[in-house]
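Internal tracking record. Fields below are filled automatically when a chain is submitted to the structure queue. Please do not edit lines marked as system-generated. If the sequence contains nonstandard residues, flag them in the REMARKS field before resubmitting.
Queue: standard
Priority: normal
Entity type: single polypeptide chain
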Amino acid sequence: MKDQRLKIALHILVMVLSLIVIARKDAVHHQTSVFENLMIDAFAPTQRSIFYIKEKTSSFFQHYITNVNASKENILLGEKIKHLENRLFIYDEIERENNRIKDLLQFGEEIKSDKVLAQIVAWDASSDFKVLRVNKGSKDGIKILSPVVTANGLVGYVFKLTDHFSEIISILDSNNRVDAIIQRTRSHGIVEGFAKGRCVMKYVTRTEPIILNDLVITSGLGNIFPKGLKVGSVTKIEKESYGITQHVEITPSVDFDRLEEVIILVSDFIQVTTGEWLKLDASYENEEENFESKIDSKNAVPGDPKKKEEKR
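SYSTEM-GENERATED OUTPUT FOLLOWS
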């Protein structure tokens, strides 16, 4: 037991002495020689220059690589932005088209006709929007003389037809005559195409109290256009020193420069009444011929050699 205690005490003493020596031990210093000092002083600027070049070169390549990557990312981002802008443009056009179509479909709910939405696909190059072509034809139920309108007013009527296309003669054409009235005064006249995107209202007497900006609407006469459709507004009035009528110019309600979609009003009533009008005209012509023949027979002289020769 005494031997073990002695060994433990010796071990503890050795450890304590070791710790004391380590604690009191000074840092190791290496004294450089004169030659080493000369070498350090000689090569220090070169080492500093090499280190500087190394840092700059590393920084340059690092910035170059960063710029290249950033440039690639910018190109990708630019393409994505263009793609998104294109999609936004398409969505905006769809929204605008939907709004126009919504206005067209809500227009004329009181008009008892089937409404066919059509898109303008061509204009007559020889005229100022006097003849339009749309992408709906007889296969879509379109008929000759069908009125064509927009939410803003009257466009014209269908005068030529194929299976899939229709041609519309607009109110700007001088061959298109619209029976119309001034809404405020109920003055009657015939609207025809005039010049430079305007129309003229003929046969308005000088005594009618028409003023500028009076609204012109369809009268419902003429067997083509329903009553109450906006035609345009009065923009010029000239009363000449002679004659019984006045010169009235009208600016159409429809902006033909921005016209893209139209509504075609299709009704069997137009076709039936047109046939009835033709029958009436034919009956009037027959009555006139019978009346003239009766007058000729009454005025004929008995025994007239000329009449005998005609009978022969």
